[in-house]
Amino acid sequence: MTKVEVYSKALNTSIEVSRMIGEKKGKEKGPTLIFMGGIHGNEPAGVFALCKVISQLNPERLRGNIYAISGNLHALRKGERYTTEDLNRLWTKSRMLRLPATKEDAANEDVAEQIEINAIIEQILEDDDGPFYFFDIHTTSSETLPFLTVNDSLLNRAFTSQYPLPTILGIEEYLDGPILSYINELGYVAFGFEAGQHDGMASIENCIDFIYLSLIYTGAMDKSEIDYHRCHDRLAKTTGDIKYTYEIYFRYQIRENEAFSMQPGFYNFQSIRKNQHLANSNGNPILSRGKGRIFMPLYQSKGTDGFFTIRRIKRIFLRLSAFARKHRLDRMLAFLPGVKWIDEKKSILQVNKRIARFMAKDIFHLFGYRSVTVDKYHYQMYNREAAARNEEYIREPWFS
């Protein structure tokens, strides 16, 4: 079993971890929780937090099974985001279909890591009963308050609404191949937690609080087993009055060989105005397209997402979209000009881009669709609700 040494600047200490950080089998039947930390090798906070929590859990007081998986061991050892390819961009349908069977056949170290992680996930899904919950723990290069990144399905929305944290919807429309999108497409509850800045001590503490709250919200542990209010209130306090749901409406994608640099001093959720100088590209200023908030500004050498901009979604629109999805009102969309179904299950729409100019993507988002550009003339819109395994969660207290 491969073990690597992982260093934390925040703690000024190192620990040895293997692929399975730890697992605990509860005394009673219950949910299956899969936590992942260190998918990016320069984000050790989740690994350290999982080591601490797993070591403290008493199986006699647990329901179900808890697994803690370390992500990119090779990159964690070096303290780098990745080696050749971003491990959190490799989980596309096409790449999963041709994923080698063994790490010896992998094209590079990052794909070898993916093969091992995927094998563990498949084994857990085969051996355990569920319901299954997947949590991917991250940190950011800039200062940030904690938040959740959520693929916009009603299943994910319902579960994550329990946390006292801001929620970001729609990131899967801008990122190609994150592990959580792959797991969501399998139908399970899966989302990301961003704990803070990579090397901040607060990030480790936020991870620990998040892990304990997740054990409570899934029913794996009773509130009485931990200082629940302390965990809840500490996380709530870190976010102040920013506890709303937001959507991403713009991403600045860094081109190959582009010299990109953020302007100094930006931090997550900072308000921005139209035409504000945000970054530079090859020496030229990049200005904001409108007012909103900046999200995940890039202050590290590796990565292709320069920054995102987000805006708040009003609660009435969240309720309206939930109503539209529950009652499958999306079936009416195919009657519109330039829109047609392209699969038998009626879960994928093809949309003419000229028509889409007059039908904002927001309309399709309302009905639960995310878009992918397929060619010069068309989008494909995928139904986020089609794969959801609602029947496996319907008896959970949070489900509605």
* Computed Rg: 21 Å
Question: What is the share of helical residues?
Answer: 25-40%
Strand order of the largest sheet: 3-5-4-6-9-7-8-10-16-15-12
**Share of β-strand residues:** 25-35%
Task: Characterize the largest beta sheet: strand count, sense, and whether it forms a barrel.
Answer: 11 strands, mixed
Name the shape in a single word: globular
Overall average residue pLDDT: 93
How many strands? 20
* Discrete helix count: 12
Structural class: alpha+beta
State the assembly state of the protein chains: single chain
Uncertain runs: none
The separation of the N and C termini measures: 42 Å
Which terms would index this structure?
single chain; 400 residues; alpha+beta; eleven-stranded mixed sheet; four-stranded antiparallel sheet; 12 helices; 20 strands; 28% helix; 29% strand; globular
Short description:
This protein has 400 residues and is α+β, with helices and mostly antiparallel strands. Helix content is 28%, strand content 29%.
